[in-house]
Amino acid sequence: MSLPKKTIQILEFLSISIGIYAVIILTYGYLYYATGGIGYFRAITQSFEGVTFEKAVYFSVVSFHTIGYGDMYPVTEQGRIIMMCESFTSLFYISIFSGLLVYFIIRRPNDIFTTQNVYLRLRNQKWYLSIRIGNKGRTVIDLKGKFEAWIVEENTRIRILQHAEDMADLERILYFDIPIENQAAAKLRKTLPDALNKRILLHMKFAFIGNDIRTGDQVAHARYYSSNDLRFGKMFRNVYSWDTSGRRYNFEWKNFERIEPVEEEKIHEFLLERQA
Fold first, then answer.
1. Is 102 in the same domain as 118?
2. How confident is the model at residue 43 (pLDDT cuts 50, 70, 90)?
3. Residue 234 confidence (pLDDT)
4. Disulfide-capable partner of 161 in 43, 149, 189, 262 (CB 3.0 to 4.6 Å)?
């Protein structure tokens, strides 16, 4: 049985923390034992007894957690200094451990991703510049997406397109589609044939920002593309199915990048129309 990535990370963190804790306890236990800085008082006989290494480790644990039963205590100046050092170590270690543990538990894993390519998609006889977004974690709400495209000429950045929009909630799958035929995309339409034929290099960036639905924490994602990442397609393959109660099941994320191909004549028409 494979554990979720987040669970594995928490278990690894706990293992490392326990190891560090054991080193601290044993180190201070050894110092108490080697210096003879602590004494063990047996209340029944009203007498001091010798301190073994096991008892020194016991005192180290009690001191680290500031329990203080009173059966053992420093009897020399060295013992008092060592105990003060352990108290300071305990203060910082427990604070750091608690903070990191909470961070590992509530932080959002890196479970949002986008397609490796930017797609020129033909839908209902209209062309769109399209990016598919996937989410394997909690829903992200209040999304604002932004797409930029530019070329570089003579060490100057020339903007080709900038498109921003409010997006729907990202539950599992979302699409960022830009209609190519819009007036705002006029520069892009003229640039695409040269970019697709590798006469120029078109740079692109897609980014969005939103909020985790459970924690309210800000979630951001960005990815850079170039004209080498442009592909033609129609409909993306489904990555899940719906059951009768309206719930998603049978996830197949391997289909995330798969898309229905466009007929060659349609691609040829697309290029001819924009070269005219």
1. no
2. low
3. 95
4. 149
Determine the straight-line distance between the first and last CA of the chain, rounded to whole angstroms.
Answer: 59
Q: Are residues 257 and 184 in the same domain?
A: yes
At 46, the pLDDT band (50, 70, 90 cuts) reads low
Give φ, ψ of 266 to 5 degrees.
-70, -40
Q: Is the domain of 133 the same as that of 26?
A: no
Whether residue 52 is found in the same domain as residue 153: no
75, 192: one domain: no
Residues 156 and 208 in one domain: yes
Query: Is-above-0.85 flag for pTM?
Result: no
For the record, the structure tokens of 210 come out as 């939103």
Q: 104-119, pLDDT tens digit by residue?
A: 776 666 789 999 999 9
**173 and 226 share one domain:** yes
Domains: count for the chain: 2
121-172 confidence digits (pLDDT tens) = 999 999 999 999 999 888 999 999 999 999 999 899 999 999 999 999 999 9
Structural domain boundaries, residue 52: 5-106
For residues 124 and 219, membership in a common domain is answered with yes
